[in-house]
């Protein structure tokens, strides 16, 4: 069976062309987890199926590396748009359906893919001024730090993810450093249960948390964010404590294709 490997700033995915809508149902959780395993499989942070849909250019069906269905994946959404283009689905603007609803996307002149994210409201502060919880298609815990070098992402991230408020449903944990050139971020992802080199919904959440923390007035914003795997950017609009017109921008790169037996 042919698979394709893509990454968005180091956040890597296995993609399968399921436009016949016959492939997805043949995979169970154990098989998806085995394919995503970095020692005994292909290796990836998640797996996606690109499926036909009567009302959209395609449908994105996404699974975490543990084989369980996932909430929205921002970098995955950008990678599946690049995959669609590589399959010959050429559009000036893509419209596709994901688990959290419809999304739009475009391929920019510099080769980056821009993905429209869902609107965001309701930011809570477990630690006022320092830690924030919000949902950008996936739930995120954002904590601002003074230095990233001393952060043990797996140990500290897992501790927060497994703490009583979040243990049952899980939460992604992000450590964010503010600087003159934008934000830097390290992320622990639920479902992967490890550090990932980037997380699109986490980058989006970090940018929103930074705006909220700074008390920025209503208006448009654009914030560069550097993850471990590369540079991304978030732009959007704040109005009456509601974040809209949110676009996540960054690279989406084809790595290789191959075949794998189930």
Task: Write the CATH architecture name of the largest domain.
Answer: Roll
Mean pLDDT: 97
CATH topology of the largest domain: Diaminopimelate Epimerase, Chain A, domain 1
Q: Which stretches are low in confidence, meaning pLDDT under 50 for 5 or more residues running?
A: none
Q: How many alpha or pi helices?
A: 4
State the fourth-level CATH superfamily of the largest domain. Answer: Diaminopimelate Epimerase, Chain A, domain 1
For this structure, the quaternary state is: single chain
Question: How much helical structure, as a percent, in the residues?
Answer: 10-25%
Instruction: Give the ordered list of helices and strands.
Output: EEHEEHEEEEEEHEEEHEEEE
> What Rg, in angstroms, do the CA atoms define?
18 Å
The biggest beta sheet is recorded as: 17 strands, mixed
Number of strands: 17
CATH class of the largest domain: Alpha Beta
Distance between the termini: 8 Å
| Principal-axis shape | globular
Structural class: alpha+beta
Measured by DSSP, the beta-strand proportion falls in 35-45%
Number of domains: 2
């Amino acid at each position: 069976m042919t698979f394709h490997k893509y990454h968005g700033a180091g956040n890597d995915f296995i993609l399968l062309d399921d436009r016949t809508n016959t492939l997805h149902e043949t995979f169970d959780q154990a098989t998806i987890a085995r394919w995503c395993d970095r020692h005994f499989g292909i290796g990836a942070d998640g797996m996606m199926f690109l499926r036909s849909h009567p009302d959209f250019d395609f449908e994105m069906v996404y699974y975490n590396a543990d084989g369980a269905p996932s909430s929205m994946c921002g970098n995955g959404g950008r990678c599946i748009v690049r995959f669609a283009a590589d399959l010959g689905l050429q559009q000036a603007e893509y419209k596709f359906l994901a688990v959290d609803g419809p999304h739009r996307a475009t391929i920019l002149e510099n080769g980056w893919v821009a993905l429209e994210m869902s609107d965001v409201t309701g930011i809570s502060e477990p630690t006022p001024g320092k830690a924030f919880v919000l949902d950008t298609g996936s739930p995120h815990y954002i904590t601002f730090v003074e230095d990233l070098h001393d952060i043990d992402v797996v140990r500290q991230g897992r501790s927060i993810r497994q703490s009583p408020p979040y243990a049952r449903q899980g939460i992604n944990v992000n450590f964010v450093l503010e600087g003159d050139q934008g934000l830097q971020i390290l992320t622990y992802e639920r479902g992967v249960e490890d550090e990932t080199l980037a997380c699109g919904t986490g980058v989006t959440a970090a940018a929103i948390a930074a705006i909220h923390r700074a008390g920025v007035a209503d208006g448009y914003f654009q914030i560069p964010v550097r993850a471990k795997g590369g540079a991304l950017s978030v732009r959007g609009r704040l109005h009456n404590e509601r974040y809209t017109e949110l676009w996540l921008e960054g690279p989406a790169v084809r790595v290789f294709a191959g075949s794998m037996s189930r």
